[in-house]
Amino acid sequence: MNRITALFIAVAATAAAAMAQSAQFNDIIATVLARSPRLAADSLSARADLLSMATEGNLPAAEISFDHLWGASDGDKRWGLEVSQGFDWPGVYRARHKALAAARQAAQAESMARLRQTALEARLLLIDLVDANLQVKTRRRIKANFDSLLSLTRQRFEAGEVTILTLKKMEMAGYGTEADLADAESNLDRLRADLAAMAGGTLIDTDGLTEFPQQKLLQESDYLSQAAPAIEALTLAAETERLGARAEALKRLPGFSAGYVHEYEEGQHFNGFSVGMTIPGLATRHQKAAADARREAAEATAENARLTRAAAIHAAYAEAHRLSSRVEAYHRVFTDDDYTDLLRKAYDRGQLSAHEYLGELNEYMTLYLEHLADETAFHRAVATLRAL
What is the largest CA-CA distance in the chain? Predict the structure, then answer.
């Protein structure tokens, strides 16, 4: 097998692993969305709000009244019964119905926005878990390497080949690798707990997350033109307030009532009907102004959200574009994990002193962690762009 063929196979294997990782990401995110207690609570709260709004369009309760009068003599009695129903100006109910329909659409868009935001939070957490798994994997390899190296150094010290100072340096470095590994494992445990909390306490196996998902950076205009459920929800909320203001304006028109009347007097029964009219007067003078203010506030909120989203996309795209070239440049260097093994072999053969070995190893770890941080930040930026 020539070098080009081997390189092609390695690239293909990496691409296949990235695609498999993307599928695993999507499966985990689907689990989080299905079991998220926060999404369930938000859904129930939205449903309660819609039901509460729907009751505003109902007719007021029917009114039943009964009166009984009697005179000085026992036979002089009179009584009456009336059943009446009041209702607002007919156009009010039509306006409320339109406002409720807009509110339902806004609730659906808001639900989609919450789903999208939760999916983004889960994706960012999974990207952090990839970073954490890679750090733990690297630090475990280095610790195992150090344990073996420390054993060899002790043998050399007993044989008089190295000084006590060299042995102490290696022991101190070994303690450092243990502390670094403990910190990395603690961070990994914390991220796993955060993921379980998002999924309603469900423990999810993330040990296999050791590759970042396959993500391509598009043009900035592509992200600006994509659908934004959060903006749509705010726009529909503003429309709901506009229609609500229209209903409040119509409430300043007269309301009516109609009823059935039955009267009994002097041994005779009388049937009839009653009609009435309510004049709102000053009772609704501030309601229309308040509804207009809520509409203007909702429109301003939607416009501010559009501007904020555009600024966020611009910032995230600039960050992703800046990191992409750095990640690509360093990726070729850190694709192979055999550098620490080469350092170990050089030390075993006496080609590096303990001081040189530790210096080279520290330099490698610094660069590797910088590269890993850049790659993590790049994938977080791209994931954010997809969800804005």
Answer: 133
